[in-house]
Structures are given as structure tokens and as C-alpha cells.
Design a protein that fits this description.
By secondary structure, the protein is α+β, with helices and mostly antiparallel strands. It contains eleven helices and three strands.
């Protein structure tokens, strides 16, 4: 308790502690750990001399924990649904686009902007959310993290019943369409380049030997989704 009071009122990072309290509902003890959760590898910071000072390791940990919590939550919520349904529902919740939107709703951009000297991207938001979950786990353990994710994220920001009827996995829809109609399809990476100090990918969809659509994004999966959406539109599916 004393450490939390110090972090909130006296710490050099007390402004961060106050922002985190508004977002999380509590003041972290290990403030430096939570601070690290908001350092994307593309950001300039005063600790550049420290190699790998970014949130990638926390993001890796948070991604695994979040996936486990969501899987268990869905398993208990839908006792009569099969593995395919549960897998799709989990994917809808933990996919990059959903996490980016969740992070924005939670107000993580208010913290990210403190440490970023460049333009914030939506991908940074989702990365920070996963890293934040990793930080909560390291500070408070799995049981508390599970309770937090379910009560403060899943139930507060996600309409799970609306999600049941939504299918925006454009790549999956396109693959099903091509299989049904006997089309040969391939996803081809045609360019990888740097944009705002980050990797960016351009993907082409090759349908029966012809490039019919393109997608461009900060990760390959998102680029494939963008290209698939364009292809589905052109095919009037």
C-alpha cells in the first residue's frame, strides 16, 4: 500500500500512475514494468542505450495469457458449442483489429502519446494492450489478471452476443468461396518495406493465376485480410 501511495503522489512517474489508475482502476506497485508496456520498438526514448527496451516481451506474455483467459471464458459460457465455434469466437476477440479497438476504448492512447514522438498507429494500441495484460500478470498473478480481463475488458467493452453473428474474417470467407467454386487461390507477398520505422507488408491475391486484389498493412495477416476484403467485393460475394 505504501508503495502505491508513493507511486501516485510522489514518484517521478506519478502522472503515469494517475493515468493508469483511471484506466485500470488501481495504482500499480511496479510502475516501471507498466511504463515499459507502453514503449513500442519504433518509439524514441531516453533509454535507447539499453538494448531491447520495448514492450515486445510483455506483449508476447500478454498475448498468451489473454488467449488462455478468453478460451476458458468461452468454454464455460458456451457448454454446448463445438470446437470450431469456440475457435472462431476466440479469434474474433483476440485478433489484432479487435485489440486495437479495445485499447482505444480503454484510453490507452492517452498513455502511449506520452512516450511516442511520432504518429500513433492502431497496431501500437493493440500491442500495448497485450503488454499491459502481461504487466498485470507479473504484478498480480493469473487469478487477478483473469478477473480483470473478464470484468473490465470482456464484459465492459465487448458485446459477446453481437459478436456471435459477425464474421469479418475475410480471408476465411474468400477461401471457402474459392473451394466451393473450384478456384485456385494464393496469397503472395509482393513487397516488404519500412514505413515510420516499422515493417509494412503488401500482399497480392492470385486467383487462377491472375493478381486480382492487393492489401497493405503493418503485419502480413492484416494485409491478407485487407486484400481478401477487396477480392470479395470485386467478386460480389
Amino acid at each position: 500500500m505504501i508503495i502505491k501511495i508513493y507511486n501516485y503522489y510522489l514518484s517521478p512517474d506519478k502522472d503515469l500512475a494517475k493515468k493508469l489508475r483511471r484506466i485500470l482502476g488501481f495504482t500499480p506497485r511496479r510502475l516501471n514494468l507498466f511504463k515499459l508496456a507502453f514503449y513500442h520498438k519504433s518509439m524514441k526514448n531516453s533509454k535507447e542505450i539499453i538494448e531491447h527496451y520495448n514492450n515486445e516481451r510483455l506483449e508476447y506474455l500478454g498475448d498468451a495469457i489473454l488467449s488462455t483467459i478468453v478460451a476458458e471464458y468461452l468454454f464455460k459460457k458456451y457448454p454446448n458449442q463445438d470446437e470450431g465455434f469456440l475457435t472462431k469466437m476466440r479469434s474474433k476477440i483476440v485478433k489484432r483489429k479487435s485489440l486495437n479497438a479495445l485499447a482505444e476504448k480503454m484510453g490507452l492512447d492517452l498513455v502511449l502519446s506520452t512516450y511516442s514522438q511520432g504518429k500513433l498507429s492502431k497496431a501500437m494500441m493493440g500491442n500495448a494492450l497485450e503488454a499491459l495484460i502481461g504487466a498485470i500478470y507479473l504484478e498480480s498473478g493469473y487469478r487477478y489478471t483473469k478477473k480483470y480481463v473478464i470484468s473490465k475488458i470482456l464484459r465492459q467493452y465487448i458485446d459477446i452476443h453481437e459478436l456471435e453473428t459477425v464474421d469479418d474474417n475475410f480471408k476465411s470467407l474468400l477461401l471457402e468461396y474459392c473451394q466451393k467454386h473450384g478456384h485456385n487461390i494464393d496469397f503472395r507477398l509482393i513487397n516488404k518495406y519500412k514505413h515510420e520505422k516499422r515493417d509494412r507488408f503488401k500482399v497480392a491475391i492470385v486467383l487462377n493465376g491472375d493478381e486480382v486484389a492487393y492489401g497493405d498493412d503493418f503485419n502480413k495477416k492484416s494485409a491478407e485480410q485487407a486484400a481478401s476484403r477487396m477480392a470479395l467485393t470485386d467478386l460480389q460475394v
